[in-house]
Design brief:
- The chain has about 160 residues and is of the alpha+beta class.
- It has 2 helices and 5 strands, in the order H-E-E-E-E-E-H.
- The protein has a 5-stranded antiparallel sheet, with no helix packed on it.
- Strand 2 and strand 3 form a beta hairpin.
């Protein structure tokens, strides 16, 4: 007795394949939900609020201490306020004028910027030495009878031959 089209093993395998592909499609579409792409431990960047030259950003000051960073753009001042839980208030923790901070070039950095400049100079010199060595090797490969100074190897030969 012939099998019906529904009991054919190929048909069953195709239906199972279709169901699995639909499941994969649902999983991929579920990933595109806003905020769904972030790692579980990663938190979204806190918003920065401000206007008129004064900007505020909430942040974690210490392991158990939270507060607000404030920056006055017009006066070039940075301030830090911490939240005191028991008093339910903000307390000014630190403030400084940052107008001259941008002019610093070598404050509390490692390696020292002069060391980096020296390393870059050495690297450029090494590249030039390598290039000149490759050019000399190329010219020797083109004319194996010529010395680096352009004189012939054997006496009696002219350099223009």
């Amino acid at each position: 007795m012939p099998r019906g089209p529904r009991s054919n093993p190929t048909t069953i395998a195709l239906w199972v394949n279709a169901v699995l592909l639909c499941g994969i499609l649902v999983a991929l579409l579920g990933r595109s939900i806003p905020g769904g792409n972030e790692a579980f431990a990663q938190q979204a960047m806190p918003p920065i609020a401000g206007g008129g030259g004064l900007f505020f950003m909430p942040g974690q000051i210490d392991s158990n201490l939270y507060g607000v960073y404030a920056m006055d753009v017009d006066r070039q001042t940075l301030m830090v306020y911490t939240f005191v839980r028991g008093e339910k208030t903000l307390r000014l923790t630190a403030a400084r004028d940052i107008s001259f901070d941008r002019d610093l070039r070598r404050y509390n950095t490692d390696p020292h910027p002069d060391d980096i400049a020296e390393l870059l100079s050495r690297e450029a010199d090494d590249a030039r030495v390598r290039e000149s060595g490759e050019n000399a090797a190329r010219s020797t490969a083109e004319d194996p009878n010529a010395n680096n100074d352009g004189t012939p190897d054997s006496p009696g030969e002219s350099p223009n031959e």
